[in-house]
């Protein structure tokens, strides 16, 4: 019975120690474990590094980072970053976090490269590459507008402009020329990739349509992909009104 109690306590302590870390308040005393950061994205890991730097008095140049830490009561910039020094535990934690960031950035760049390759194949109407490399089925190339809508998204959105937060990336662009309003969007959530095309007849500006009609024209397309085994695979397409 005593051994069972000790085992439960041991597991409970390890569970607490392995909880996902929110800041680096203990990074000067304890080495981080992979279980504490395995679900964190690049930006969250960079936040932890910045948090550790801030606790040592680092003066940040980026306004959004500086003003965040300036709001923390414990933040005391030393004024001269050259005087900043880290002990062995702190440096090991910084290196540990940076190594994880480098791995995630490499994986992210592979995905973005593959999306860009898909874009090139689409804009060049390269059916062989699209079918072979991205699992596009033959019915994608039927004579309708859906494929042109997809190309329209890829023409208007630059992959390098995707912004990231945690494990999500997004870039959205709205074009309103009074006659119609189009929204193009690419979104990445973990291993899922979505491409959206939204169309609305008319403008967001009031009274822009001369030929008003009860048959309000509005439709949405979404293409779904999955990043799996370093390959971007087409899953399906959905249209709604």
Annotation field: number of helices: 7
How helical, in percent, are the residues?
A: 40-55%
Strand content: 15-25%
How many domains in all? 2
Radius of gyration in whole Å, from Cα? 25 Å
Order of strands in the sheet with most strands? 1-2-3-4-5-6
| Broad shape | elongated
Mean pLDDT: 87
Helical/strand content category? alpha+beta
Question: What distance lies between the first and last C-alpha atoms, to the nearest angstrom?
Answer: 64 Å
Secondary-structure element pattern, one letter each? HHHHHHHEEEEEE
Biggest sheet architecture: 6 strands, antiparallel
Oligomerization state: single chain
User: How many strands appear in the DSSP assignment?
Assistant: 6
Pfam families: YARHG (PF13308)
InterPro entries: YARHG_dom, YARHG_sf
Coiled coil: 94-121
Domain YARHG: 21-102
Structure description:
The protein has 241 residues and is of the alpha+beta class. The chain has two domains: 2-85, Methane Monooxygenase Hydroxylase, Chain G, domain 1; 134-240, no CATH class. Helices cover 40% and strands 22% of the residues. The protein has seven helices and six strands. It has helices at 2-17, 34-37, 42-55, 63-70, 88-123, 127-134, 146-156; strands at 163-165, 168-176, 180-189, 192-201, 218-228, 231-240. It has a six-stranded antiparallel β-sheet. Helix 3 packs antiparallel against helix 5 (88-123). The longest helix has 36 residues, at 88-123. The termini are far apart. Residues 1-17 have low confidence and may be disordered. Residues 94-121 form a coiled coil. Keywords: Coiled coil. This is YARHG domain-containing protein. InterPro entries: YARHG_dom (IPR025582), YARHG_sf (IPR038434). Residues 21-102 form the YARHG domain.
């Amino acid at each position: 019975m005593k051994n069972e109690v000790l085992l439960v306590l041991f597991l409970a302590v390890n569970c607490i120690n392995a909880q996902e870390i929110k800041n680096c308040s203990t990074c000067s005393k304890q080495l981080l474990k992979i279980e504490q950061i395995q679900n964190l994205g690049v930006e969250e890991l960079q936040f932890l590094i910045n948090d550790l730097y801030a606790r040592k008095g680092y003066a940040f140049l980026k306004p959004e980072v500086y003003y965040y830490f300036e709001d923390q009561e414990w933040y005391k910039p030393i004024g001269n970053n050259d005087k900043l020094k880290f002990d062995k535990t702190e440096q090991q934690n910084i290196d540990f976090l940076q190594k994880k960031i480098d791995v995630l950035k490499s994986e992210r760049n592979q995905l973005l490269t593959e999306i860009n390759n898909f874009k090139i194949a689409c804009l060049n109407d390269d059916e062989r590459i699209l079918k072979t490399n991205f699992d596009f089925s033959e019915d994608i190339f039927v004579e309708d507008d859906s494929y042109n809508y997809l190309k329209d998204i890829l023409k208007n959105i630059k992959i390098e402009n995707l912004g990231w937060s945690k494990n999500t990336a997004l870039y959205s662009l709205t074009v309103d020329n009074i006659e119609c309003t189009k929204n193009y969007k690419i979104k990445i959530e973990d291993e899922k990739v979505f491409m959206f095309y939204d169309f609305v007849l008319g403008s967001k500006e009031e009274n822009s349509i001369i030929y008003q009609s009860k048959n309000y024209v509005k439709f949405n397309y979404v293409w779904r992909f999955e990043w799996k085994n370093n390959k971007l695979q087409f899953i399906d397409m959905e249209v709604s009104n």
